[in-house]
Write a structure and sequence with these properties.
Helix content is 23%, strand content 27%. The chain starts with a strand and ends with a strand. The longest helix has 22 residues, at 119-140. It is an alpha+beta fold and 260 residues long. It has a single domain, classed as Deoxyribonuclease I, Chain A, CATH 3.60.10.10. It binds one DNA strand of 18 nucleotides through residues 9-10, 12-14, 34, 36-37, 60-63, 112, 114, 120, 152, 206-211, 247, 249-250.
Length: 260
DNA sequence: ATGTCGTAACGTTTACGA
């Protein structure tokens, strides 16, 4: 089972690029972030004709997450638990049942948090505390499950081409990285790093200042796997070449395969 | 170089978020 995560930066602007990539990469599941659309504005037909079921959790203009799946999406829930007043659309869950295993999928768009300090950074850290709570509950289920998406976290210096440019940024502040490590260290496997070591692997290049042309990237899109899911993983890759196309997102897809 | 995008709005340009 091939499962991808992809921050598309707007479904209206990215529909062609997204369907082109789906046709080539043929993921069974695509977990999307920054759809920047209300649920009613998210197109279903282009995905239905390719065999995908669609579940969305959107809002006007900003944020928004979705899951596309060739398998039926069961037990869909929307919103990260822990704050009834949080109206930002950043979390969606669903279960898919493969030939061998059921997988609980969590799609997330973690707050950016800039500038530091400030209310947006406070919101990021508070959101991560709620994420940790959900992660603990997920582990307690002792089933194959994953949390995938745009974490807006650069885990280590080797995950940035120029880490010195990010020292004051919410994506790389010690508090942000510590919160990410606390979650990983509960017992999750960070899929990409379980299979590939060393610098030079990125999932985001800013539109500004020729970041792509200079390969000034960062790795901020991640899969965290429960032990039961990690045991099923057979591959994890980044579709870097997508970034060179016409009208690209500033992120590229990251995907895993599971023997599920 | 405050450098680029995507979205929305009392839109032919500005504001915001990233």
């Amino acid at each position: 089972m091939k499962i991808a995560t992809f921050n598309i930066n707007g479904i209206k602007a990215r529909l062609g690029a997204l369907t082109d990539w789906l046709d080539e990469a043929q993921p069974d599941v695509a977990i999307l972030q920054e759809i920047k659309s209300v649920d009613e504005g998210f197109p279903h037909e282009p995905f239905a004709e390719r065999g995908y079921n669609v579940a969305t959790h959107g809002q006007k203009s900003f944020n928004g997450v979705a899951i596309l799946s060739k398998l039926p999406l069961e037990d869909v829930t929307r919103g990260l638990p822990g704050d009834a007043d949080d109206d930002q659309a950043r979390w969606i869950e669903a279960t898919v049942v493969g030939p061998k295993h059921a997988i609980r999928l969590c799609g997330l768009y973690l707050p950016n948090g800039n500038p530091v300090p400030g209310p947006k950074y406070d919101y990021k850290l508070a959101w991560m505390a709620r994420l940790e709570a959900r992660a603990r509950d997920l582990l307690a289920e002792e089933m194959p499950a994953l949390m995938a998406g745009d974490y807006n976290i650069i885990p280590q210096a080797e995950d940035a081409a120029k880490p010195e440019q990010w020292t004051e940024d919410a994506l790389f502040r010690p508090e942000s990285r510590a919160a990410f490590r606390r979650i990983v260290n509960l017992g999750f496997t960070e899929a990409f790093r379980a299979r590939t070591q060393g610098p030079g692997h990125y999932s985001f290049w800013d539109y500004q200042a020729g970041a792509w042309q200079r390969n000034n990237g960062i790795r901020i899109d991640h899969f965290l796997l429960t032990p039961q899911a990690a045991d099923l993983m057979t591959d994890c890759q980044i579709d870097k070449d997508i970034r060179a196309r016409e009208k690209p997102s500033d992120h590229v897809p990251v995907w895993i395969t599971l023997d599920a």
